[in-house]
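Two proteins, back to back. First:
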Amino acid sequence: MAATGCGDISTDGANAAAGSGAAASEAAVVSAPLEGRPDITEFCGDKEITVALADGFGGNAWRKIVKRQFEKEAAKCPNITKTIYTNANSDPQKYASDINGLVAQGVDAIITFDDFGPAALPTLRKATKAGVVVVPYIANPGGTPGEDYEVFVAEDTDQVGKEWASWAEKALGGKGTVAMLGGTPGNPLSTAFLDGYKANAAPSITLAQDEPLNTDWTVAGMQQAAAGMMTRYPDTGLILTDFGAGIQSLARAYDAAGQELVPVAATASTNEVGCAWDQLKKDHPGFELLSVEGTTNVSVVALRKAVAAAQGIENTEASMVQIPVFIDTLNGKMPVCDPDLPADADMSADLTPEEMREIFAK
């Protein structure tokens, strides 16, 4: 499962974050849309269609933002006459039932975050064989694109690793040791990010371990993993992580050890990080942050692919999505805070501040 979709973090409001200073803005959402991509209106076609978003889990801010972006993008096509949303609440049987139900309703296209991996592949394959266009995004179901489903749309983990490597070299002055804090044991996403880093890392920078240390993508797991990392690799001068939402927990681990937090290259930070930035920087003057973000926007690419296929129109845009650098404190790109939004809100979504607040006012 992708860290961006499944991280465990408080949703009691960003203003509850430790040190609620807003470094970049008191109440602003700065979007990071995917540049150079076509508009969905190029693929709307003429046939009236129904599209659906099937979530394996929909209970956090990231998923709610994706749902709003899905609805907003679909509304640009007047011949998309209906949009449907389903949430399996982490129940694989309900996920299968949801998708089977969508097929029975006659939907033309489904985009889906498959939280259950290859275990759900038979369900996706069945929907595809029934003539429905199925496009999974971010969470890889396995199988064969073009046979089991239309196409898999994913973030470019190699590009993220390249950004990490370049920034790490700069942050460390070309020499030092880095460690990787990943997600659940053996998950392919954390490994892919680390492989992307390895392929681009400077030879003068040492990698503490060959595999990611496991945080389970939870704040408690982050603190525990960081404590173990400091014991095993005391010379670590920079941390890589695909769980940017856990940065405050990482800081707590350093506080407990009486050490200053080192620079962090991440993905998937949150509103909570922005609202805590002033206090984090005050407590840890040497702390700097890079975060590569915009993962909610990957779902919009998936919808374009699905609509184009349902209309029989070719869409040649890349299914591997490069997401931009959203935070780089070494170069003046500061974290963003909106105290009116939940702590786990993804501030890089391509939505206006008003649209973001509408999501969580319900």
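And the second protein:
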Amino acid sequence: MSLNLTITPAATADIPALVAFVNGVYRGESSRQGWTTEAHLLEGPRIDAAALAEMLQAEEAVLLMGHDEAGALAGSVYLQKQADTLYLGMLSVDPTRQSGGIGKYLLLAADAYARQQQCRRLKITVISVRHELLAWYERRGYRLTGETVPFPDNPAFGIPQQPLTLLVMEKML
């Protein structure tokens, strides 16, 4: 892949920029410029500073940031080791740069990190009505497990505008 992203782990000092970035990717007005927006499904923020700080402090967790050559944040992904599985969440790509390979690049970085952590599989959850996103992950080797998870009943993660369920997907390494 011809992208030249510098991948670094997020630190506490990155929280304000990451909160703005992730919320802009998922729910902000700018999210409507990309194909991964959730603005039509959920109201409110995707993440707040307290929740992001908690994620960064979680055991065996890291949030990888991808900066372009100019130093701009182009994408990020949250990873947490859970036994022999690496949970992948909150994959975020600048909406104006989606479909340019950044998401794929971050998934490759996640695969490499999983192997370094001696994980055998990666696991994600995707909102069930996000058919285009489910198909995107399937093209990258993820498969539906048949398992579902209720959408969090916590306004800190957004207020659903319809009933939502999360589908569990896995990719074997």
